[in-house]
Design goal:
Helix content is 36%, strand content 22%. It folds into two domains: 111 residues, no CATH class; 209 residues, Thrombin, subunit H. The strands form three sheets. A six-stranded antiparallel barrel has the order 2-3-4-7-6-5. The chain has a six-stranded antiparallel barrel with strand order 9-10-11-14-13-12. The chain has 360 residues and is α+β, with helices and mostly antiparallel strands. 32% of the residues are buried. It starts with 25 loop residues before the first helix and ends with a helix.
């Protein structure tokens, strides 16, 4: 018997046509992974730069080294973490492009760790070297280290010299902008013979210290330091007819002024003033609760007057004279990289100035 003819359309048994996928060149995959990695690093760096408060400094050269080390550690750690998560995500895919991207990210991560680690180590070494040089450099020879005259006068007493307008006029003439190769700060005269008082961290590790005056730079010498109190005495070879008394008496909520040259303003010319009140006295017990190694006779005056980097070393002034030396802005960035709190500034008290220098 003849077989029945096959009427099935042979075309219907053919495998449906699927378009051939174009393979992406490997170099484009590597380039894409590199661009993504650099973008992530840039975003993390920007977040750390803002969050750590580095933007407040005129340049990275003037920022504290410990803050740079901390920011760099956050950048390295953050970039590594994000890139690692991205590589884990790509691991879920078995495609060749995902494998190439993953290995490229691994290489970027290794590079970030190595270069970041080397930079952190070099910064730490540079810091230790600078501190060692500073400790080993003898102070300029002087017959006797100058002492600091301290007054007990107060606004509530009958002393007619306690007048805010008069004291501010003296303070403006007695305040000077200080510059070193490490940054800028403020100092103020405490006698008529060229003795200036400032914060120790302003001149710490500096090989050259000058006053940025309108008629040019004038060299100053370090004549005495009290690093534990963050205080230093300088000497300029010219008379300082306007000077401030160091006073130990003040009242809570009393009006005060801060004088200096914040880092975001011009570094010479007229001094900047900001007004506030005495917010609190931070006693030795309070200080040592946070800083165990603090001296047994140190205290601070807390104020809400506006202060920025560059004000360090300037006077906190009431109607009678300088009740403190600007030392620090309250900040969490030293510990966790968080933005600083606003309106909290600490000045080394006049009594601490007396304790630091007159007991030596």
């Amino acid at each position: 018997m003849d077989e029945a003819p096959n009427t099935e359309n042979p075309i219907s048994r053919q495998t449906p046509h699927s378009p051939t996928r174009r393979k992406v060149p490997a170099f484009l995959l590597v380039l894409a992974a590199v661009v993504i990695g650099l973008t992530i690093a840039a975003v993390v760096s920007w977040l750390v730069y803002v969050g750590s408060g580095l933007y407040e400094y005129d340049s990275l050269d003037s920022a504290p080294t410990h803050l740079l080390i901390q920011a760099l550690a956050w950048i390295v750690g953050g970039t590594f973490g994000v890139l690692y998560l991205l590589s884990r995500f790509l691991k879920k895919s078995s495609r060749r492009s995902a494998r190439i991207g993953r290995w490229t990210i691994h290489i970027l991560n290794a590079t970030v760790l190595v270069l970041g680690g080397v930079a952190i180590i070099l910064l730490a070494i540079a810091t230790q070297f600078s501190q060692a040089v500073n400790r080993s450099t003898p102070l300029p020879a002087t017959s006797t280290a100058p002492s600091v005259s301290v007054s007990d006068k107060s606004k509530s007493s009958s002393d007619t010299t306690c007048d805010m307008e008069t004291t501010l006029e003296k303070a403006i003439g007695a305040t000077y902008p200080v510059a070193t190769e490490n940054g800028t700060g403020t100092a103020f005269a405490i006698d008529a013979n060229g003795t200036l008082l400032t914060a120790y961290h302003v001149i710490e590790g500096a090989q050259s210290i000058v006053l940025n005056l309108e008629d040019g730079q004038v060299k100053v010498d370090v004549v005495n330091t009290a690093p534990d109190y963050d205080l230093a005495l300088l000497k300029v070879d010219r008379a300082t007819p306007e000077y401030l008394d160091i006073v130990t008496n003040y009242d809570l909520a009393e009006d005060v002024y801060v004088l200096g040259w914040p880092g975001n303003t011009f570094f010479t010319g007229q001094v900047t003033l900001s007004q506030g009140i005495v917010s609190r006295t931070v006693s030795t017990v309070d200080v040592q609760y946070v800083v165990k190694s603090a001296p047994d006779d140190i205290s601070f005056v807390q104020t809400d007057a506006a202060v920025n980097p560059g004000n360090s070393g300037g006077a906190l002034v009431n109607a009678c004279g300088a009740i403190g030396v600007i030392s620090a802005i309250s900040t969490s960035s030293y510990y966790s990289g968080l933005p600083r709190e606003e309106g909290i500034t600490y000045a080394i008290s006049g009594q601490s100035v007396k304790n630091a220098f007159n007991s030596q």
